[in-house]
Amino acid sequence: MFKVKVVEMMVLALFVSVGCVLILYMFQGFLVQLGATGLFVFMLLFYVRRKWEEDDRLKMASIMKDAPIAIMIVKEHKIVNLNQKALNLLMGSKKRVIRGKDVTEFISFSNNQLTKVSGETVDVELQKASEGLQEKNHTFVLFIKDLQQDKEKEALIQHYEQLSVLGELAAGIAHEIRNPITSLKGFLQLIETDHSNSSSKSYTKIMLSEIERINLIVSELLVLGKPKELNKNKHHFFEIIQLVVTLTKTQAIIYNIEIKFNFDPSLKHVNIYCDDNKLKQVFINIIRNAIEAMKKEGTIVIDVTQVNDRLKVAFIDEGKGIPKEKMESIGKQFFTTKENGTGLGLMISNHIIKEHNGNMTMESEEGKGTKVFIELPINS
Ligand SMILES: Nc1ncnc2c1ncn2[C@@H]1O[C@H](COP(=O)(O)OP(=O)(O)OP(=O)(O)O)[C@@H](O)[C@H]1O
Ligand SMILES: [Mg+2]
């Protein structure tokens, strides 16, 4: 009996322990499954959240990049991000140099001013947006509009408007001049064919060629109102400058001014791809300025050299020179120190030289003289 009970007990114990092991095993599997599922769900949520954050970050970056305005993101008074336009406005070299800095280092909210990295201040329009951001962290987006740029654009528009008005005016005047010139030319041609008066023939020839030049300038003025394509061709630079010297000599002689020409003979055949009449207009302007600055005996030197594939022309006069404080205004439209000057000569000259892919600069010393340098590409 006892033996049977022991066996029964042992079988029961075996059953219980197998059952326990089985239950534990089943229970463990469930835990493992639960854990694995939990881990999976957790990782999925983590991934989705990261993806959302990443998308938001990319959207934000692209909005900031494409925005037509300078943007800064400020958190607790520190600049945490800024776009390229803001960086350009600050003239800062790297974003990471600006990030983390106190916003008030660059922005004055009371004066609506921005201080560039160089220390220069400019007027700006500021707009703060903090809606939807963590207000308690003092986070806001700052939109900065450069008012300086607006002012420059406005000035440029005004400049072009003035030019177009001037063009119309010039065209009107040119039209009026053309009629008497035509009749003058007709009578001169009549005198020229009159063989009984041979002594005046040489004069009429000069007068006719001068009238031709006036006609040419008048035609230029007539088209000033409308923008005109340049009439560029290959020309010998030497011939252009020589003609200009011949024409301006008549005015120089009045003041006993000599126009000296330094020209390396090897440059005699150098070609320039240009509108020759426009270049003549430039050189006449410069030599006339030199004569008007001298108005007494002296020399104007025209020095021509070649540097690589460019011609360098220097017009050196011994005139009164330009005071330092006036130097900045020279070449701006309507700036003149002459009673009858228009203050357009240098501005138009500079424009023409630029149209020829050249460069024009000036140096001057008050009481000593002025040098005008012109650089033009050679057409070999
Ligand atoms: N060689 C020079 N020496 C001294 N001052 C000069 C010289 N060239 C130009 N300037 C100064 O620059 C100003 C502007 O010259 P610009 O040729 O543009 O106009 P302008 O000579 O005054 O008038 P316009 O050319 O219509 O007769 C002149 O009034 C003069 O003060
Ligand atoms: Mg002039």
Automatic annotation (TrEMBL):
GO terms for molecular function: ATP binding; phosphorelay sensor kinase activity. It catalyses: ATP + protein L-histidine = ADP + protein N-phospho-L-histidine. The keyword DNA repair does not apply. InterPro entries: HATPase_C_sf (IPR036890), HATPase_dom (IPR003594), His_kinase_dom (IPR005467), HisK_dim/P_dom (IPR003661), HisK_dim/P_sf (IPR036097), Sig_transdc_His_kin-like_C (IPR004358). It comes from the Bacteria. Keywords: ATP-binding, Kinase, Membrane, Nucleotide-binding, Phosphoprotein, Transferase, Transmembrane, Transmembrane helix, Two-component regulatory system. Signal peptide: none annotated. Residues 172-380 form the Histidine kinase domain. Pfam families: HATPase_c, HisKA. Its EC number is 2.7.13.3. The chain crosses the membrane at residues 7-25. This is histidine kinase. The lineage of its organism: Bacteria, Bacillati, Bacillota, Bacilli, Bacillales.
